[in-house]
Amino acid sequence: MMKFPRSFFLATVTATLTLAATNVYAATALDKAMEQLHAGPICADSFDFVVIGDNQNYVPTDQPECYKQMLREFNMLEPSFVIDVGDLILGGSSDSLPPQWEAFERITGVLKVPFLPVPGNHDISDDVSEQLWMQHMGPTRYTVRYGNSLFIILDSEEVDALDRIPDLQVEWLKEQLKAAGDAKNIFLFLHQPLFSDTDEVGKPKDWAPHWDNVEAAIKGYPVRAVFAGHVHVYRDCGVRDGVHYVITGGAGVGSGAATEEEGNFNHYLLVRVRNDKVGWSVIKQGNVLPTDVVTGKRMAEMYAVRHDLVSCEEVDVPYGAALDRDVTVTVQNPNDKAFDGKLSWETVPGWTVTPPETAYTAPAKGTVPVTFRIAAKDPEVVRYPVPKYNTVYGIAEYGPPVTVSVDLPLTPTMDVKRVPAGIKIDADLSEWTNAVWAPVPYPSEGFDASRKDDLSSRMSLMWDDQYLYFATETTDDEQVQPYMGDTVWAADNIEFFIDDWHWGFTLTRNGPETFLYEGVGESAETVNTEVKLAVRRDGVITRYEAAIPARLMRPALMKAGTECRVCMIMNDLDKTGERHWLELMPGAGLDNARVRKIRVTLK
Fold first, then answer.
1. Could you say which DSSP state residue 305 is in?
2. pLDDT tens, position by position, 209-255
3. What is the DSSP letter of 204?
């Protein structure tokens, strides 16, 4: 390769000027960027650009996954351009560099916006690596005029220059500043943070020997910010003489010695130019998503897989009984192509699943049943959490294969006794002596269910031709209910779910109140007067008793053999402001359609 004098490549570039270097080499990264930048911004005083740094990878001919994700995010954000402040490749011996540059150019080629490179110490270490940089990337220092701003790229990696921008380069910098004309904003970029007044771990150091010549050169010019990398963290180094200094080295491997609190996280900067006002946001990689990240078709596909195409038979168990039976998970495949998969189980203490995993083949347009033996021989264990089955459904049309992770559909069952005559709704509960009672055992997150004196509860149901009767007995050390209407759930209150109905039973300052949150053919979010409700508090015991008319049970009928699905929440607010609750089944705080419920049968 013919070697050219270094000064040949120290070109000054604007968005309307093609590099002289293009007459020597094929188009460099900077040539391509200049061609893209030719038109300039739609508004000269308002545009955005991205700054990244240190995306070198430990695998020489690859780039970090976080950098690849960043490229995808830049294509979504569509900044005016991206500036990389150096260490684009891993580097090493000169004979290993060409394939690294080829890999970098191939991977970065997906970027749809202009890419402006800054040389780093991994990119340039000697004359040969410097020549390769210029062959692939372009000049080692240059300027770009874009909109109302001037961007100056410095070379902190000049061969034989020790921790300081050489005076000859500073003279070049002064020339660019003098020629800046009416630029309202000037930005400087280099790899090594020679301006920093701390070292990599935050220990104070004297910056002047490394930066005083540059700082003197930029004084009096509208230099808004200086960006560098090299240290694999984000660090706002503050403002000095009106210039903001920033380290951004988060596009690759992190700093092993630093924590996230110390800036060690993958990131880039989205810089905003608004006239002469400049600011930026630090964006963690992985947080910018495309508009189609979740589509209706994808949601429908995932729902179908997790609820229909991979399904487990409902596992009924009488409330308080043990369990030991075969359970079948069925995988349906409506596609024209078969696929292989594996069903595995996550177990919890007290439960066993045999075998713990099984491979299967889902035939084209067919079904495969996979059977397991599931047991929990201690009745106290037969409650949530339960074993969870997992698989990956191998064929999807609107996204990647669908991951399935679903709880065993454990459904406690309970018989509801018929009463020969109507119950008096007075919260006495003496008529409930022979009823079947179910504890309300599941505490809200962070609440210790052993605090029985604070909150404990049990529930029961009975029925006749006219009403479904509901009762609870609750220990609650404090009665706190300052609300009425639809906010009563935020204090002492019962939420009762039965099929598609959702009720609220509350002792308010005006007495017992029934609130309908949702129902069938009824106006929702209303106070209801048809339901009979009584609430009595004796010491720390609160008793609720309600009678729901048959009309408000539709489509369920008040006759023997009718099955309903029910759940409840016992809400509690203490005088300290602490709020917690108990649930008959876990997750009852979700919307009614997704609430786990027990199945009751009218006997």
1. I
2. 999 999 999 999 999 999 999 999 999 999 999 999 999 999 997 76
3. B
**The pTM is what?**
0.65
Q: Compute, in degrees rounded to 10, the torsion defined by CA atoms 545, 379, 585, 490.
A: 60
Decide: helix, strand or coil at residue 102: helix
C-alpha span between 157 and 125 (Å, rounded):
7
Phi–psi pair at 511, nearest 5 degrees: 110, -175
Where does residue 320 rank: exposed (0-12), middle (13-18), buried (19+ CB within 10 A)?
A: middle
Q: What residues pair up with 438 in beta bridges, in sequence order?
A: 459
Structure tokens at 62: 């690859």
- Which domains does the chain possess? 6-284 (3.60.21.10), 296-408 (2.60.40.10), 413-602 (2.60.40.1190)
Residue 177 in 3-state DSSP? Answer: helix
Distance in Å from the first CA to the final CA of the chain:
94
DSSP letter at 154?
Answer: -
Which among 112, 105, 114 is positioned nearest to 32, based on CA atoms? 114
Region label for 381, one of left (φ > 0), alpha (ψ between -120 and 50) or beta (otherwise): alpha
Contacts of 521 (CB under 8 A, 6+ apart): 554
Provide the β-strand partners of residue 528: 514
Q: What pLDDT, in 10s, does the model give residues 99-132?
A: 999 999 999 999 999 999 999 999 998 999 999 9
The string of DSSP letters for 213-269 reads HHHHHHTTS-EEEEEE-SSSSEEEEEEETTEEEEEE--SSS--TT--GGGT-S-EEE
Q: For residues 470 and 498, is the Cβ–Cβ distance under 8 A?
A: no
The contacts of residue 577 (CB under 8 Å, 6+ apart) are none
- Gap between the Cα atoms of 156 and 373, Å rounded: 67
- Rounded Cα distance between 236 and 195, Å, is 12
Q: Give Rg (Cα) of the chain.
A: 35
For residue 265, the Cα-to-chain-centroid distance in whole angstroms is: 16
Residues ≥6 apart with Cβ < 8 Å to 61: 99, 100, 102, 103
* Bridge partner residues of 366 (DSSP): 333
Number of H helices, E strands in the chain: 7, 34
Residue 251 amino acid letter: A
Q: Map residue 463 onto helix, strand or coil.
A: strand
Q: Which of 198, 141, 199, 207 is nearest to 175 (CA)?
A: 141
Contact 175, 221 (CB under 8 A): no
